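Attaching the record inline, Q. Sequence:
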Amino acid sequence: MHQSPQLIARSTHRYDLTYSTEGDGHRTPVFTLASDMPFGAASTLALFLTLLDDPYLDQAGGQPSRVAAQSPAFITSLLASALRNPDGEEQYFVLAVPHPAGGPHHLLGGRLHATTADALRRVAKKHGTAINLDPASINAEIPIEWCNMSDERQEVTTRRDERRPVNGYQGKMVHIWGCGGLGSWAAEFIARAGAAGITVCDPGVITGGLLVRQNYTEADIGQTKADALATRLRSLRDDLTITIAEGSVPDLADLLAADLIIDATVSHSVTTYLDTLVGVERKALIAQIATDASSGTLGIANVSAPDSTLTPSGMDARAGRTVLTDGELELYHPLWQEVADGDELIPTRGCSVPTFHGSAADLAAVAATLVNMIGRQLQQLPYTISGTHLIALPHAPSGPRHHFVLAEAEDASLPPSAGDTE
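Structure, as predicted:
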């Protein structure tokens, strides 16, 4: 049994085997063997064909092979594929080998040099593909190169991040506004988690000083953050749809199509704009994320469910009142406290003045933790609740590492800081 799918080049080091009829890939036969190969697949074409007909070496003991000859069918499929590929190209093939213990077949990928592939094409053009070649008549020196294969079929593999909070992003359309210290890292984690599409929005230009803590490289200097981050995300997954939004926020129509909007701009004007979305029918969860300006070891995520009647600014103000009156949450007071006279000039959340406190490791860790918190709530849609996540890295001052403040606490018969504290 054989099939003839295509190999599609994904990079200089990667080909994907597909049965899609789209594209102009390398014709590659997939040949299902009748038995396993207890003595291996050999390193030359002649010996491989011999093992196809007698995989258990029965004939060496004077017994007939317990497997019907497979080399004629294999050669036919190989010739047919070679004939459909251009001259001068190598010829690949894939073997589906039965597993001795049962279950899905094991896949082996082989490659024949271009000179061998051209010889196959000449034979096919002269004699056709349905010919019977005696393995003993084939040059014993023709090599087979066995390829490294990453078998990612669903029946034999699972994602290594299965059953993790980030599974909430799989298949989602995500907007990320603000591609700086938190947004640039969050975008990468969400891309790797399996989002279907990401829209990035940040007209700011990358300078050398940003490389200390943002997810960019020297080659990105001079580009806008949105452009450079889009290039980075495309390099991670070529099946990911990336959109670059012009200006500070995308068009309203694009917002209404999103599953999640992450605002990492710490901009008062953006918050005011998000406030206008309350009452507008949408499916998007809105999450505003930020860190503290002095250390970059604290994180906050105000998460607004699609049906929430509380504006993002109102949610933040309520969380602030709750936290500032709770002595056990003193660690998080700086997220809302005004700067006192005589203190070092440290912009508060919502100020556009750049700061340089906190390392790349700090901000990547804060972003990763907040991405997990938001992912957990995405998994709960459409029944997720609105509220504020507060998180602290292990080396932040003493206090709870995670605390959740319900947005509805002041309107419901719930304690003012209902939620989990860790």
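The first helix runs from residue 45 to 53. The first strand starts at residue 2 and ends at 3.

More tomorrow.
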